[in-house]
Amino acid sequence: MKKSILLLYGIALLAWLAVPGARAQQAVVDASLDSTVILIGEQTRLSLEAEQQPGEVVQFPLFSDRIPGGLDIVEPLQVDTAEAADGLIRVTHSYVVTAFEDSLLYIPPFAFVEGGDTLWSKSLSLKVVQPFEVDMEANSITDIKPVYRPRFNWLGLFKIILLVLLVAAVGVGVYVLIRKYVQKKPVFEASAAEPERPAHEVALEVLNRLKEEKPWQQGRVKEYYTQLTDAVRLYIDRTFGVNACEMTSNEILDGLRQLKKESKELYGKLQDMLRMADLAKFAKWTPTPGECEQSLKDAFTFVEETMPREPEPAAEEKGESIKEKAESEK
Predicted confidence band at 330 (pLDDT cuts at 50, 70, 90)? Predict the structure, then answer.
């Protein structure tokens, strides 16, 4: 009787074990390569798979740019989930990989973590083949070939020039028609060029404007000295032939050494004005109102004393004009 009871318990246990889902099944992991032989630099796909129960969590190995065994990752991780047989879930991690070493690569097993257990995939191998042999003696290092330059397209250039001329001709024709028949004006009008104003007139006009505005009283000291020196520099450029607009203050003074010999006083006034301007513009120096006014006076004196003078009439002509005036009064 006892043997019969034990036999019945054994049969019941086997039936329970055979029923799907009656007990928790451990996940099944695997690793595979799409190709077992590739050429150097050729790409293949590495797939890591795990079949697991729904809701179960299996941690896959993760890689950033290189996989143990000598594989370089070309495309990042792609994850795919699908249903498997017996109600299981198949999760697949895939990488596109390549290799640049002519050898048989050994890919070690990959570790998966399920709860507190570690599951290992099978190891893999990949044969990387060099498709040709490099003869180092026959293929010595040579210079880089120059850039290939195609023949100049003269026909294309001619077409562009012809198109430009055609557009210009049409534009001129439209202008002539509008000018002659719409506006009723001569097609071409001769315009007399305005004579260039004397340099001293332009400089004195700026100096008089600065005298009236007094920018230094409004806190615009740097702006004031910039306008002041620009006017004096342009005057020196056009009067003395010194390229003062492109020179430093020391270079300007060096170019006016002849003026120093003729009038040390004028040279000194110009020197004081330029140096005070440099301090205000570049050394963050704030001149006093008196120093600003003195710089303007020095600029006035320099321009007025050096500007071209009209020649005085000769003594004889002057005497004759006085005589003629006296006779007319009689």
Answer: very low
The domain locations on the chain are 24-129, 199-306
In this structure, what are the phi and psi dihedrals at residue 155, rounded to the nearest 5 degrees?
-65, -45
CATH fourth-level superfamily of 24-129: Immunoglobulins (2.60.40.10)
CA-CA distance, 238 to 228, in Å (whole number)?
16
pTM over 0.90: no
